Amino acid sequence: MGKARSTQKRTTNMKIKVKPNILINLRNIQLIIWILFLAVACKHKDKQSNVEVITMNDTRPINDLKELVLKKGDTVAYDELHIAYLNEEHSQEYLLYSIVMANKYNHPQANCRVYYCLTDIFKDNDLEIDKETMALAIKYLKRGAEQNDGESLKRLGELYLDGKYLPKDTILGKKLYENGRKLVGF
Asked: Is 71 exposed, middle or buried (0-12, 13-18, 19+ CB in 10 A)?
């Protein structure tokens, strides 16, 4: 039993000797890992913050475009906003600006874009559009056609030719479609 005690004392009194160079290398490795981690985290943060303000025109932030559309009915800003939303796939938000441009500023293309925003929301979610929403979308499409918007005329013509949401009328459908095609150029 005496030997066991003396062995215990020896192990508890023993010190592990580590070379100083190994400790320095471990600290350097830890420091390098932290620096790499911070660099990657900062890079990731920069990418996220840029997404909010990028537009296709590389000149105006999206919030400036929204303000110009709402306050002044700026058609160039509205078109730039359209491109930005197409790239980001936010048709639900773009719908609001299209309604303002159609109702407040009587912009012909905005009527057609209201139609597409309303119908795309359902199509993108694999849902059947209800009759009331489709009637509202067609109301805007007809208004765009009355203002001689080529895309509105083409789409309205297709709806008359199809006969699903409007009474089938091939004569009117062909006429509207051809007039729209001439205005759009294809």
From this structure: exposed
Query: How buried is 59 (Cβ within 10 angstroms: 0-12 exposed, 13-18 middle, 19+ buried)?
Result: exposed
DSSP character string of 95-127: HHHHHHHHHTS--HHHHHHHHHHHHHHHHHTT-
Instruction: Write the DSSP symbol of residue 128.
Output: P
DSSP at 125? T
Residue among 171, 144, 174 nearest 158 (CA): 174
DSSP 13-74: H------HHHHHHHHHHHHHHHHHHHHHHHHHHHHHHHHTT--TTSSS-HHHHHHHHHHH--
- Cβ proximity of 150 and 180 under 8 Å: yes
- Residue written as token pair 């095609």: 181
Distance CA 172, CA 161 (A): 8
Reported as a single tens digit per residue, the pLDDT across 1-36 is 444 444 444 444 555 554 555 545 666 666 666 566
Q: How do the residues of the chain divide into helix, strand and coil, expressed in percent and rounded to 5?
A: 75, 0, 25
Task: Give the CATH number of domain 90-184.
Answer: 1.25.40.10
- Those residues of the chain that have pLDDT short of 70 are 1-59, 88-91
Question: Does the predicted model carry a pTM greater than 0.85?
Answer: no
d(CA 15, CA 160): 92
